[in-house]
Design brief:
alpha/beta; Rossmann fold; Arc Repressor Mutant, subunit A; six-stranded parallel beta sheet; 13% strand; globular
Length: 220
């Protein structure tokens, strides 16, 4: 299938990986191309296999999932990392996002929620489990309407501000291209310019910036 999402499972518990295989192999648009038992192995296999999405546990022997995510995003930036973990405290949540994860799903989530999260990550979108998304919003809104060190909006062209707003609202590159009647490559170029001008590093940073600047609201 041309649009299959290629997955790498990273978890040190064989029974967890087995359960994930049973669930995900039943999805018509997903294929598991590899597994890893440690963070270091997850990095190696991500670089070798170039999966679309890595399902990443946090607590693993040796290198943990946070450091593994950081290294994967440095060495294989096109690969999305989706945290799948039993931990729901703020420390792990924010550290995984800062490391470059595209989403965070607790292991207690329903199977269809995990499948939806994988599809979102595969489209280049951010997925945050509802109970955790509120923490992100609260934390960054508490920093004030314009976070310290933010670049002013007027550094962006009007088109870049349009693209930034649509990215923050969760639209994929192709959807933004359709809405603005431009090519997906042009959207990519605008995204790179936005991130360079604002000194941001990933899509989660863009969402947080847009919230602080009031470009999107909580009801969006």
């Amino acid at each position: 299938m041309a649009n299959e999402i290629r997955l790498l499972l990273a978890d040190d518990h064989a029974v967890v990986r087995s359960g994930l295989r049973m669930l995900l192999q039943a999805q018509p648009d997903m294929v598991i191309i590899g597994e890893a038992e440690t963070g270091r192995e997850a990095v190696q296999r991500a670089v070798e296999l170039a999966p679309d999405v890595v399902l990443m546990d946090i607590e693993m022997p040796g290198m943990n999932g946070i450091e593994a995510t950081r290294r994967i995003k440095a060495e294989a930036p096109a690969t999305a990392v989706l945290a799948l973990t039993m931990y729901e405290d703020d420390q792990y949540f924010f550290e995984m996002l800062r490391a470059g994860a595209s989403g965070y799903v607790p292991k207690r989530a329903a199977p269809d929620e995990l499948v939806s999260a994988i599809r979102a990550a595969g489209r280049g979108e951010v997925f945050l489990y509802p109970s955790l998304a509120g923490r992100l919003v609260r934390d960054y809104l508490q920093r004030g309407p314009a976070g310290e060190g933010d670049a002013p909006n007027d550094e962006l062209t009007p088109r870049e501000q349009e693209v930034l707003t649509l990215i923050a609202e969760g639209y994929s590159n192709n959807e933004i291209a359709d809405r603005l009647v431009i090519s997906a490559k042009t959207v990519d170029r605008h995204r790179e310019n936005i991130m360079r001008k604002l000194n941001l590093h990933n899509r989660v940073d863009l969402v947080k910036y847009a919230l602080r600047k009031g470009l999107i609201g909580l009801d969006e």
